[in-house]
Specification:
The protein is mainly α. Helix content is 56%, strand content 4%.
Length: 334
């Protein structure tokens, strides 16, 4: 059985990783700029300010600045700002709310979530910490604070948080997915693969776990093994430019430039401003197929991956430690 608390940690994964992968004619090594977007649930802005614990509760917009004169804020008003995507405003409102309701862990949780999504990682870290002081078993705070700690490079603390989450609920696919990120950052790709597989067995529509699993294989120079999980992710969510672009990277590195070009085009159809996919499409245009490559059937690969998920689920149920990676078949109809 997969050990839920194997050794892990997380180094922030760069959103753009140059991979030297053998592809093209004669095994020529090409530098492939891979968009290796991992799951953070919601992409974060690049800017992040620092906030001390004493300054966590910001006043609501327009509130008096005099001590003790902070404007009372209703939870519903702060939540409405968050739901509208006004994360900076939501952070200010939840900051004011936590001043008036310091006993409510959900207020600090939402302050943490709003701060994280507005790019203020330091404030998010403090807010999640406050929520967990009030309720050490607040699982949403455990999971999302682990993500923030990973972004801050505090891997060991992130590991503690995600282990605590799994101790509360070992059937949380989201927790296993975050565990996968942590394991990979610790330099334990096999353990990360196990964690992502466990997430997918618990939720066979967890497209981010599939995406991240495929990216591990790409980073390890095993792009052919990345094709099946990425094909399945794009089958479930074809309108994701990130998943289509990453599938294109795996196809390109596996010697399928024409199929890669189609994936890059799909990424651009989903988001015409996706510059990585535009540059990649230019790169593969007119490139000949690998002389050893056969036709690629992505639908068959996606179906085969789903069958593999059932095998992993059976392996977990029977206590097997680790299922072998299924063979990737380019076109089973050949």
């Amino acid at each position: 059985m997969l050990a839920p608390f194997s050794r892990l940690s997380l180094v922030t994964v760069s959103p753009l990783l140059a991979l030297a992968i053998g592809c093209g004619d004669g095994g020529t090594s090409h530098t492939v700029a891979a968009a290796v977007t991992v799951d953070t649930t919601t992409p974060l802005p690049s800017t992040a300010s620092t906030t001390s614990a004493g300054a966590i509760a910001a006043s609501a917009p327009g509130a008096p600045s005099a001590p003790g004169a902070a404007k009372a804020v209703a939870y519903s008003d702060a939540e409405a700002a968050y739901q509208a995507g006004h994360y900076g405003d939501a952070a200010e409102l939840f900051g004011a709310y936590t001043e008036s309701k310091p006993e409510n862990p959900w207020g600090f949780y939402m302050l943490g979530l709003s701060s994280w999504k507005s790019g203020n990682l330091a404030q998010a870290d403090v807010a999640f910490g406050e929520a967990l002081k009030l309720d050490p078993k607040h699982q949403k705070s455990l999971i999302n604070s682990a993500r923030v700690l990973l972004e801050l490079g505090r891997t060991d603390e992130a590991l503690d948080r995600i282990q605590a989450s799994l101790a509360l609920d070992s059937a949380s696919a989201e927790s296993w997915r975050v565990l996968g990120r942590t394991e990979e950052a610790l330099g334990s790709p096999d353990d990360a693969i196990d964690a992502y597989r466990r997430a997918i067995t618990l939720d066979d529509h967890d497209v981010w776990a599939m995406n991240n699993l495929g990216l591990i294989y790409i980073r390890q120079g095993r792009p052919a093994e990345a094709l099946a999980p990425l094909a399945r992710a794009t089958q479930i969510k074809p309108g994701s430019p990130v998943f289509q672009n990453n599938l294109g990277q795996a196809l390109e590195a596996s010697g399928y430039p024409a199929a890669a070009g189609q994936a890059y085009q799909a990424a651009l159809q989903a988001d015409s401003t996706y510059q990585k996919a535009a540059l990649a499409l230019e790169r593969v245009s007119g490139r000949p197929e690998d002389s050893t490559a056969t036709n690629i059937d992505l639908t068959a690969l996606a179906q085969g991956f789903q069958l593999s998920v059932e095998q992993w689920r059976d392996a977990v149920a029977t206590g097997m430690a680790r299922d072998s990676t299924p063979e990737v078949v380019a076109n089973p109809q050949d």
